[in-house]
Amino acid sequence: MAVKINAEKCKGCTLCVKQCPFTAIDMVDKKAVINDKCTACGACVEACKFGAITKDEEGAAKDLSAYKDVWVFAEQRGGSITPVVFELLGKGRDLASDIGNVNLCAILLGKNLEDMTKQLFEAGADIVYTAEHELLENYTADGYTKVISEAIDEFKPEIVLYGATHIGRDLAPRIAARVNTGLTADCTKLDIDEETKGILQTRPAFGGNLMATIKCPNHRPQMSTVRPGVMDKAKAQPGRCGKTIPVTLNLKESDIRTKILEIVKTAKDMVSLTDAEIIVSGGAGLGDASGFELIQKFADKIGGVVGASRAAVDAGWIDHSHQVGQTGTTVKPKIYIACGISGAIQHLAGMQTSDIIIAINKSPIAPIFEVADYGIVGDLYQVVPELMEAWG
Fold it and tell me: By 3-state DSSP, what share of the chain in percent is helix, strand and coil, each rounded to 5?
């Protein structure tokens, strides 16, 4: 454990208990004792006036050779596996093959896991670690962090991948702190170093103006969150089977500090940019919010969904759930149609891997045309109605 308490120096003053933001210190026989909620934040070290608490910055030396296999966090909501999991399994298979002699695994938490476990096997998982408990039916940071970090300590994977979803971005850093390792967030590319067999994690940096490749040579597991929509999904193999391993559960209700009273779904939750095969996006060139009425009609006509640039979202013309780009959703549809979007680098980073890109813009030098397969220079209010008519 990274934080240690010297019982001989401890005076039982409870200052550390009051200072700890994670209720990670208990008083036992008038002495402070660290429990498994500790994230090694160091707040207790500063609070102790007697030098009884120290933080080992390096932590206990790890035997890196003991860590093996590639894990994917199989995020599920309401009994349905989120689409990014299948992207991670597709990439995870490539990573496992490049490392050699390792398994591709998924870790699945929740309730009534049988059908979801079957889907994970068919998507390529060799092993599915399951944690089935009524307290895990819906996501909670405390419950999921405790179960997964303890599973990592027990089974020692060398790589753990999470989707960069709301849940993944909340969960992954908590686990990284708990198991004393690093985390590279919002990755858009993952590779294996041929010499070290370590993972090379590439992500946008400095506002998307350059790409940084990050290594984690001295700690395990190596952990990444990956943007939805940037990897190819694993192809399902119907009937494929694997091995199920239940993880050891030491979870009780008092471990979870939050309680879910009700789950309310709104209309914007139904926007699924990552799954869409056709996306029609509007930008500042629409002029005002009413322009999205035309974009919606166009999308409905061709069986697509509506996207937007950050400029349109920031102007209040459409909800953030429609935003495509570095600060929105990364997408990879079969057809992406950009209407009135100039093509800022942050937007391009979120859609440039689309199979076919069609750009409509008044300016012939708009950056969007540099990545477009087909470009139309003209007023979108004239071009789009003609496209709709030609579509049939």
Answer: 30, 25, 45
Contact 273, 322 (CB under 8 A): yes
Dihedral in degrees, nearest 10, Cα atoms 141, 123, 225, 91 = 170
- Non-local (6+) Cβ contacts of 138 within 8 A are 260, 263
Beta strand 3-5 with 53-55 is antiparallel
Residue labelled with tokens 């970090």: 149
Q: What is the pTM of this model?
A: 0.70
- CA dist 38 and 1 (Å) reads 9
In angstroms, the CA 134 to CA 104 distance is 27
Report the C-alpha gap between 366 and 355 in whole angstroms.
Answer: 20
| 379 CB neighbour count, 10 Å cutoff | 13
Q: Which among 33, 34, 36, 38 has a CA at the least distance from the CA of 22?
A: 38
Q: List alpha helices for the chain, DSSP H.
A: 15-19, 43-47, 83-99, 114-122, 141-155, 166-178, 291-302, 310-314, 345-348, 380-391
- The pLDDT tens digits along the chain (392 residues) read 468 889 989 999 999 999 998 888 999 999 999 887 787 788 898 899 999 998 765 544 567 888 999 999 999 988 899 989 999 999 999 999 999 999 999 999 999 999 999 999 999 999 999 999 989 989 999 999 999 999 999 999 999 999 988 899 999 999 998 888 999 998 888 999 988 999 999 887 766 667 889 999 889 999 999 988 788 888 899 999 999 999 988 888 888 888 888 887 665 445 578 778 999 999 999 999 999 999 999 999 999 999 999 999 999 999 888 999 877 888 889 999 999 999 988 898 888 889 999 999 999 999 999 999 999 999 999 999 999 988 86
Point out which residues pair with 34 in neighbouring strands: 25
Q: Which residues pair with 41 in a beta bridge?
A: none
φ/ψ bin of 378: left (φ > 0), alpha (ψ from -120 to 50), beta (otherwise): left
Dist. CA 316–CA 334, nearest whole Å: 28
70-73 and 159-163 strand pairing:
parallel
Q: By the 8 A CB rule, do 106 and 74 touch?
A: yes
8 Å CB contact between 286 and 316: no
